[in-house]
Design a protein that fits this description.
By secondary structure, the chain is an alpha/beta fold. Helix content is 37%, strand content 30%. It has two domains: 233 residues, Rossmann fold (3-Layer(aba) Sandwich), CATH 3.40.50.300; 87 residues, Alpha-Beta Plaits, CATH 3.30.70. The strands form three sheets. Strands 6-7-8-3-9-10 form a six-stranded mixed beta sheet, sandwiched between helices. A four-stranded antiparallel beta sheet has the order 2-1-4-5, with helices on one face. Strands 12-13-11-14 form a four-stranded antiparallel beta sheet. Bound molecules: adenosine-5'-triphosphate and magnesium ion. Adenosine-5'-triphosphate binds next to β2 and α1.
Length: 340
């Protein structure tokens, strides 16, 4: 649906040239929710602004639905842009217009006949759950409601692609969830391709199918969300994931570990799991089978999309052989083990 090839963007300023994008190539499939995560200044907004040609790339091509948009003339570009909706962190609503008229705005620009436009706005208000706010002005809305207006406005001309530039960054976690759920619903109902950029791995985790990691103007890593979570391949992705699953074990319990276990043998391990192998049955089977104790010291279980994901820090206590066999057993059952 979107094919980005060797894209570069250099900003020429009075003092220096700033490379904002360096040889970026990405392929985004129709109907997927594709996330791009990166730190501040990595080049995310520049990339999204190139995709709807608010910014002209210095080099490379961007093919949207078979059409190279970097090669379009003004008039064709206007038509192509109508098929790409965009939502922003700061909503960018017109404060002097009601909710209804904000959503009407892009339809006016596209010169949609008045009756059809009004019907469309009503339909969109329904879709984003704001029917009762039609006559209200933006400053009487909460952040989440403002973003719903932003989404309705972005969808007015029935785009094939929705771009989202940190659309939930100004919202609290609960409102973020409701907006992400709305985006997911829209993606499924309309088979809309969504490209969203964020610096928050939680956003990626909640709705994206695939993710690209951008760092210092370059794409470092691309993969489906689950595999990036289970096997982050770069320091950048590792730090984003660490930030949300808190893999660091608290230091305090390490003191307790020095406690004697009599003649028993003990090992401290971290068990990471993903998917079906998650969960207690394996641990309890291990305890029975190898006559060991498992002291659970720390754990963190989360879901990436609908798949459980997380880790447990365990102290295994038993005979030397029992402990080693237990670790082998966990590994044989598809769990990842790290001896601490
Ligand atoms: N109009 C501009 N003129 C000059 N430099 C720019 C311009 N826009 C962005 N830059 C520079 O390009 C680089 C990438 O900026 P960009 O806004 O794409 O980052 P970002 O990943 O969106 O960051 P943030 O998460 O803070 O929004 C930065 O070094 C920035 O200073
Ligand atoms: Mg930005």
């Amino acid at each position: 649906m979107i094919e980005i090839k060797n894209l570069a963007k250099i900003y020429h300023t009075a003092h220096q040239d700033i490379v904002a994008l360096d040889d970026v190539s990405l392929s985004i499939n129709r109907g997927e929710i594709f996330g791009i995560i990166g730190l501040s200044g990595a080049g995310k907004s520049t990339l999204i602004r190139c995709i709807n040609m608010l910014e002209k790339p210095t080099q490379g091509s961007i093919i949207v639905d078979g059409q190279d948009i970097t090669a379009l003339k003004q008039k064709e570009l206007r038509a192509a842009r109508q098929k790409i909706g965009i939502i922003f962190q700061q909503f960018n609503l017109l404060s002097s217009r009601t909710v209804f008229d904000n959503i009407m705005f892009p339809l006016e620009i596209a010169q949609v006949p008045a009756k059809a436009a009004r019907d469309r706005v009503n339909q969109l208000l329904e879709m984003v759950g704001l029917v009762d706010k039609a006559k209200v002005y933006p400053d009487q809305l909460s952040g989440g409601q403002k973003q719903r207006v932003g989404i309705a406005r972005a969808l007015a001309n029935d785009p094939k692609i929705l771009l989202s530039d940190e659309a939930t960054s100004a919202l609290d976690p609960q409102t973020t969830r409701s907006i992400l759920k709305l985006l997911k619903d829209i993606n499924q109902q309309l088979n809309l391709t969504i490209l969203l950029i964020t610096h928050d791995m939680n956003v990626i985790k909640q709705i994206c199918d695939r993710v690209a990691v951008i760092n210092n103007s370059r794409i470092e890593e691309v993969g489906d969300v689950l595999s990036i979570f289970s096997n982050p391949g770069t320091p950048t992705s590792q730090s984003f994931i660490k930030a949300i699953i808190n893999k660091d074990d608290p230091e305090e319990y390490k003191h307790d570990l020095l406690k004697e276990h009599g003649s028993k043998f003990s090992k401290l391990i971290r068990v990471s799991f993903i998917g079906a192998s998650a969960g207690d049955p394996i641990i309890s089977a291990m305890i029975k089978r190898f006559d060991v104790d498992a002291n659970i010291l720390h754990g963190n279980i989360d879901r990436v999309k609908d798949v459980p994901f997380g880790h447990l820090t365990l102290e295994l206590i038993g005979s030397r052989e029992g402990v080693h066999q237990s670790m082998q057993f966990l590994q044989n059952n598809g769990l990842d083990i790290e001896v601490l």
